[in-house]
Fold Sigma-70 family RNA polymerase sigma factor.
Amino acid sequence: MLKHIIHNHKKLLNKEKAEQFEGLIQKQTQKLQRYFKRYRKPVVLDIILSEDDRQYHMTLNLNMRSGPVIVKRKNSDLRALTHDAFDSLKNRITETLEKERKEHLYTKRKQRSEHFDELMGYLRETRETADRNTFEALLKRGVPGLRNYLDRRVKQTNTAAGEDTGLRVDDLAGELYTRIYDRFGDHPEEAGSRLSWMYGQADSFMEEKLTENDLLETSGTPDDARTGIPQEPEFTYSVDAEGELVPVDELDDPVFIHNMYNIEDIFTENPDEAEEMRLKVDERMTRDGFHHLVSSELATQPFFKRSVFDLYIIDRFEADEIADIKDCSSKEVEQALLEVRTYLKERIRSRIKSEEVAP
């Protein structure tokens, strides 16, 4: 939630102009609220007005998580000055949020690596001294991303097929854990490659299951996907640190939902277009609605492309790690990411446009 405080304007302006200025500021700050809907840190915007040499000076000071965001502008026209200052502030907010998001993801990746290295020691000891059930229970709780990965593959396969394919995530996960138990001695010794090896087991296992059920080549077509903006659930759900499904508002830091699709992950080359699309998307749906839209469109892509995109965006693996998981080249991974992003951009633009021209 964003709060604002105006400083010094009543000393510089008569009562009528001061009230008009307050109304203008209120409209501008309301437009900024969408940036901070789930921003846990209390955010206060200080608006400091001064006058010198027949010009108004405005300083905007916003206390964001990574530090203060400050914008300074001057103009003899107070309305023009306000619009200019707030336009600049919007750009700075977008840049700062993206910076904070990337820093958060980097920290999460580092924590995941450290956690996994420790977990591997427990798994190795358990594999040697305990029974299969104990090992699989530890694996389930320690690496919830494996089951989540299977879950996304099944959901997108069902969407692509247009029906329930009969694949059950819990059954598949149980089989996968058993496979990892049986093959645990085959994992690479390099610490950085162990998690990729596990996801490689999940990916090849899923590919085998889809092949057995004649579903590997199943993908929808753009015409199968609904036009316009999809309906969304009443509540937004995500996955907590232990892999449990929980409402987004109950997460420790829901502004950084790293297991959902974000507009910044798709419109990566042009920050201005990304911001424009974010404005249009935010007017039409929640974060969960956008995630649902992207997921439905991904179902139209071949298994290789949609799984590569998920590993990169949702599971946050680098291209070379995905190449290890998929047993292909980094160039193939980068090409798949480029093609999926290009497709998603076209479909999102098309859906937004269809909403704009709808009667």
